[in-house]
Write a structure and sequence with these properties.
The complex is a heterodimer of chains A (143) and B (149).
Chain A: H1 11-25, H2 33-45, H3 50-61, H4 66-71, H5 75-89, H6 97-110, H7 116-142
Helix pairs in contact in A: 1-2, 1-3, 1-5, 2-5, 5-6, 5-7
Chain B: H1 11-26, H2 33-45, H3 50-58, H4 66-71, H5 75-90, H6 97-109, H7 114-137, H8 145-148
Helix pairs in contact in B: 1-2, 1-3, 1-5, 2-5, 5-6
The chains are: A mainly alpha (143), B mainly alpha (149).
């Protein structure tokens, strides 16, 4: 929820970023509450207009081809999309093979380092632990 | 942001929670893009219905009295609003005194003492570091990230 560089990008790139995340939610053919929530959270951070969000949500039912999603992404929006695609893939607690394959394709498209996904997954795990520490803190408050 | 217990709140509690965040964001008399992004992000995380979000956004123009809003809230929801309010208040880079007053009010109303409130603010600070690390990995730095990583 803290400030990110995402909202500073041109609108067309934020839209492309969200389109890729919509694609990502459907890779394993399941859309869990956790994934939906993470997806909506990222749409909020991207500061897309309500109309654009509606358009993006339609992609949840009919995901565009991955090539279309990648075509509209710039280098920076692409890297941010990769970061958040990793976070979204891990949102249900597991990155399955199909999700991993898509992440690899994004890395290849952006010409990033081979260990990019593993570094981002490690960062995501730290995020989970940080989030859990917030929940633990709230639980302590309740004692 | 990762999956969270705010998704488990009922629709009315989520609406009140988001309204509290709006009040905190409006507290310092300035509303920056970062604060709006933080609130929109939180409303998304809570899966608040788009039409309800539109109503909540109206609170920015004329924020309701926070005591009216929290008087009908569950204690657990006030604590979640305190946690997320601390994040929203930090979104523009610093805690304003008016924002801190609101956080103290939320803390008092939900039985959170000063030590615990400080722990919460430290937790928010950890989030800044973690977010900066994520941006470093994807080479999308924000001003000031070099001091955090």
């Amino acid at each position: 929820m803290l400030p990110d560089t995402l909202h500073m990008l041109p609108q067309v790139e934020r839209f492309a970023y969200a389109k890729l995340l919509a694609f990502m939610t459907r890779v394993d053919n399941e859309l869990t509450v956790e994934e939906m929530s993470t997806f909506e959270q990222r749409l909020g951070t991207a500061l897309l207009s309500p109309g654009q969000r509606k358009e993006i949500r339609a992609y949840l039912k009919n995901p565009p081809p991955l090539a279309d999603c990648l075509a509209d992404l710039g280098q920076e929006s692409g890297r941010l999309a990769l970061r958040d695609a990793v976070m979204m893939a891990a949102a249900d607690g597991n990155v399955d093979d199909d999700e991993r394959d898509v992440l690899e394709e994004i890395v290849e498209h952006l010409d990033l380092a081979d260990d990019s996904i593993d570094r981002l997954l490690e960062w995501t795990k730290k995020g989970y632990r940080w989030m859990q520490s917030g929940v633990d803190l709230l639980n302590e408050l309740a004692e | 942001m990762l999956p969270d217990s705010v998704q488990l709140l009922d629709a009315d509690e989520r609406r009140k929670h988001a309204t509290v965040l709006m009040i905190i964001a409006a507290a310092d008399g300035e509303l920056v893009r970062e604060e709006i992004a933080a609130i929109e992000s939180c409303m998304g995380l809570m899966l608040i219905h788009p039409s309800v979000r539109e109503n909540i956004r109206q609170c920015l123009a004329s924020p309701p009295d926070i005591t009216d809003v929290i008087s009908g809230m569950e204690i657990a929801t006030i604590r979640l609003a305190l946690r997320d309010g601390a994040v929203v208040a930090a979104a523009d880079g610093d805690y304003d005194e008016d924002e801190l007053d609101l956080l103290r009010l939320l803390a008092k109303s939900s039985g959170v003492d000063d030590d615990r409130l400080k722990k919460l603010l430290d937790w928010v600070s950890d989030m800044w570091h973690l977010s900066a690390k994520g941006r470093e990995i994807v080479a999308s730095p924000m001003l000031g990230d070099d001091k955090l990583v």
